[in-house]
Each structure stands twice: as C-alpha cells, then as structure tokens.
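Hey L., structure's done. Input below.
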Amino acid sequence: MARIMVVDNNPTARLFVANSLKPLGHDVEMVEPSCLFQVFKAVHENPPDLLITDLAMPACPGLTLLRMCVEDGHLDKVRIIVLTSDGDPDLAQFMQKCGRIHYVPKPVSPAVLARDVARLLEGTLELDPGWDLACKGVVAVVDDSRMARTYHATCLRKFGFRPVEVEPAELLATRRALEEIRPDLVMLDYAMPAFNGDALLRAIRATESMKETPVLVVTSHQEADLEGRLENFLGVGIASKPLSVDHLHLRVKEILATTGA
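Output:
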C-alpha cells in the first residue's frame, strides 16, 4: 500500500484521516505542523506517496507548503490532497495551474476520503482542483457527438464553468453518471442514437437529487418543433445548433438566472 503523510494542526483531524486510511493497509504518518520548514524538510527527505494537508495552520501556512512542494523537483511524483474547510478563488487558480492537487472540502466522510485516496493512488481519479471555490458552475455536457461535446466544453471553460463531458450510452447508465457528477446545469443534445433528450429529461426529473436541475436542450431541430414536446418540463431551455461562443454563454447564463441556480 502507500505511504501517506497527514499535516493538520488539529490532532483530531489527523487522527480522523489516519483511522480512515489505516484499515486499508496504508502507512499513515501524522505530522504536527509546528514549523513550516520542519514539515517541508520531512516531506523532502522522505517523500510520501501522498501528502494530505490542511490550509489554515498558524505555524505552517498550507498554501506556502503547497508552493514549496510543487516547486521542488524532488517531489514531482508526490500526489497531494488539500483537505480543508478554508479556501478562496486564488487557491483554486493555483491548484488548477499545478494539475496534480485534489481538493476535498471538510467535513468529509471516511468512506469518501478512502475512495478518493484509492482512486488518486490508482490514477483513476478525476482531480478536483477546487473548482467550487472559483467556478461559476458545473455543466454536464451530454451529446453523442464527441466534436460537439469538445466544442461546448471549450466554450464553457472559457467563461469560468467546469464542463464534464458525458457520452450517452444506455439511458439509466447516463442518468447514473449525471447523479455522480451533480451538475448545476445539464446541457443536453436532443436527437441521440440510444434515446431522445425527452427520455433522459424524464429520468432526470424522476431522480430526487436532480428534480430541479436546470437543463439546456441543444438541438439541430427548430426550437418551435420541440417547445410542445418539452413544455411540461420545468427548468428547461432550448437552443439551436450551431451556437456561437457568446450565444452559448448567454443561454447558459439565462437559464441559470431563470431557475435561480
């Protein structure tokens, strides 16, 4: 298993992480952050597989520790989780530039922490670099066209949204994928080989956690052709393909403002 170093000025928090991860066979070292340079020395001299650190530590500022670790070429293989109840947009921008830091907000359940650690060590975890600290919203992009998904995702990213591309396969599998993403908005193609957009809409509205999730149906149909089919769904907007970058941004802002999301 992995060597994991936990840096947190709260002894209870350090113990919580250790108790969450030791049953999985990990070797967990708890470090009291009494001095920034002593903590960095410990990381540098015996690099762990994973560093889990808080941010608000009086004698060891977490962001400074992160910068020192990221800038040290000797530590380029050390994976990092920021586990904290603090954060701001500057932190999010820093983590996004680093590309190897995963953000987990406190409080977190032992099961979720253990799951994220396992996936991070396996290399299968999609890193969350603190998007919720600076992001305008998470948008699930559901379209059978990879080109369309990529284009829409690029447009959304430009305006500060976090796009998550979803390739539609079987209906229930697609709905489960959306449940896991927990998007602020679903951008949905209408005509797809496996099912039409209204079928997925019914599945979304039948799911407790997504009953009120705004949906923007993006289609090559004329908007008037779909208005009758979709009029019974609340919180749903329609936009015709192709969308310019600015038009896409406008429609996303409109539906989020209309639904209060």
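The radius of gyration is 21 Å. The chain has two domains: 3-131, 135-259.

-- N.
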